[in-house]
Amino acid sequence: ARKEDLPRQQDLFQRAMAARPDPAAEAAAHYQLGRAQAQHRRFVAGDRAAVERLTEQAEACFKRSHAIACDNGAADSDLAGLSACEIAHLSFSLQNYEKACEWFDKGFDALSDDSQLMRAAFAACYGYALFAQRRYDEAERLFDRYLAEVQSVLPDRVICAALVAAGVTAALHGDVAHGS
């Protein structure tokens, strides 16, 4: 994404909405605009008001995408799940871990059984959000499930990173549990 991409994305979105797309295309368009707004936040990182505005706009797009995709049922369950995970990721970036976990729950529930890579992309943030709320057992279970689910579809180096994350979580849990 480049800094100048957002206005073009917004224009394309307006054109797509004017064409009255079918619900699946509308959900996808809302999702794509949300992604563009979320990515654009890094270009205005020094401007707190701009970051907050883009975050709100991105979240609104993802929520609309999630709602439409949920209405579309099983055919759009992955888009519903992905939109929910994007909302969770925005919340995570603002250190709102409770809200992040709420939306990660929705996202992971909606993602289909064939979506290991999508879950893998968000599992570390989800686990950390659980950990930040001192929900250590849930974080460890998540990492265990994540590793078991994706070992057959991810390259070894990604699995190694996940093992390190799971190990760190377990070690930190142990440190807290033993007061060290």
UniProtKB/TrEMBL annotation:
InterPro entries: TPR-like_helical_dom_sf. It comes from the Eukaryota. This is Tetratricopeptide repeat protein. It comes from Neobodo designis.
